[in-house]
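Ticket #4471: structure output looks truncated?

Reporter: J.K.
Steps to reproduce: submitted the chain below (203 residues) through the standard prediction queue, then opened the result file.
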Amino acid sequence: MYEYIIGTIGMVTPENVVVENNGIGYQVYTPNPFVFSTTQKEPVKIYIYQHVREDIIALYGFQTMEEKTLFKKLLNVSGIGPKGALAILAFGDPMQVIGAIEDENEAFLVKFPGVGKKTARQMILDLKGKLQDVVPDYFPNLFNSDRVEQASHTSTQFEEAILALKALGYSDKEIKKISSDLKQENLTTDQYIKVALKKLMKS
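Returned output as attached by the reporter:
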């Protein structure tokens, strides 16, 4: 079982990053791959979770151990697989997610792709009262805005963000509702994704 990998980011796609280490490129799925765009070619440490099924062996990567721990907790909930857990983590505000679980706020939880009322109820039953002990004060903000440099708006960055949202499981209809407002922003791909997720959760 892998704990973490240290290497350079060789490639960033809407679904994953490729981490180069000792001549080998590891395909690693992450909640928001574009947070690594500004660190390409610089050594990074990514905490790894290896997911094994009969038909696939996949690596999932996270910037912090807390993020990895929450991912594993979510996988223990019936009805939530790796893709669903990544979509929840991509929201970037674990305190709000955990608060919704503690407050039994199903209306908030069902806004995530693939989470219906049954799964939301299961999340509450399985995780309520069990997440505060993972790290103190719930979790830190997983995506610190200070890590991201301002960049000029380009259609490429906007399109990359849209592809990433689709990879997380959001439908064309859901994305279309927030696209017009999103295009008015002058952001990096990572920032587009964060703003889009906030808007999708409010819609």
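Triage note (M.O.): checked the attachment and the full token line is present. Confidence is low (pLDDT under 50) at residues 135-153.
Status: closed, working as intended.
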